[in-house]
Amino acid sequence: MHPEKQPEPVAVGRFRLRPTRFGAGMLAAVVVLWLVGLQYQVNLAYAISFWLLGFVCVAVLLNMRQFSALKVGLRVPQEVFAGTEAQLALDVVEHRGRSRWLWLQVDNQTVENTLPRWLDWRIDAKRPEPFVWQVVMLRRGYLHVPELQVASIAPFGLSMLQTAWHWQTESLVYPAPIEHKVPQAALPDGEEDPARPRIQGGDELAYLQEHQPGMSLQHVAWKTYAKTGEMLDKRFEEPQAAVRNMVISYRDYPAQADKDRLAGMLCYRVLEAEKTKLPYILELPQRTIPPQKGQREMALAALALL
Description:
By secondary structure, the protein is an alpha+beta fold. It has three domains: about 10-15 and about 65-175, Sandwich (Immunoglobulin-like), CATH 2.60.40; about 20-65; about 235-305, no CATH class. Helices cover about 25% and strands about 25% of the residues. The chain has six helices and 17 strands. The chain has helices at about 20-40, 45-65, 220-230, 240-245, 260-275, 295-305; strands spanning about 10, 10, 15-20, 70-75, 85-95, 100-105, 120-125, 130-135, 140, 150, 160-165, 170-175, 205-210, 230-235, 245-250, 280-285, 285-290. Strands 2, 3, 6, 7, 10 and 11 form a six-stranded antiparallel β-sheet that branches. Helix 5 (about 260-275) links the parallel strand 15 (about 245-250) and strand 16. The relative contact order is 0.13.
């Protein structure tokens, strides 16, 4: 199971305040009543106009309070692949125990207009629920979080306070796996590949892996167990002929292959190798990733930035 990522803090843009149609009508009524009182010396019109003006001012202040002391974080899934729809979660980090009613405009929504343009997010005072934001990841590389327009007209709908939320994240979008037939070794049997590192014998320790049920206790790294309390099995280097089948290399594909397609095909082979639980080596132009703890994340990250 992958560790859960911490929410990314939000960067808030400038606030814009403007009256709604209802609010504009209320202000017009205040002006009309004030003119009536001024023209005909009607004290009741004066009183009503000033009362309505005070109500409008209080409504605007309460509207601005919707964003006061509100902190929101963005939670990104542990693994995101290009071409998929990522479920980004907006978490309420701090809200001072007050209910909020916000409206969020998703600019990059491309799912055939199945969702309305503005989506409401009601934040409960006691148990605030996260808002799930569906964003289509178009390309691999660093995850780009689009600008999110946020507005509120609560509590009376007389004014609308609007701002924009931005996030800077170091999360990665992994390549879209491209299923294909894995190319066979180009060299005949028994001939070594001079372009790949030679691996000798089977007596030298290569790496440690989690203990598998049924494995002989002779393979357990007892020294490591005594230090950390974690039971790990020792894996030894295998002969070149056996290791060659476990090498996932960019050399298996034409040199002029498109980088995005190459990353997708290598990503497919990495995921397939992870399913089999067999050790593998990922060979890239500027880097080689041998079997080790966290190899999956390292391999996918390297392919995202290939």
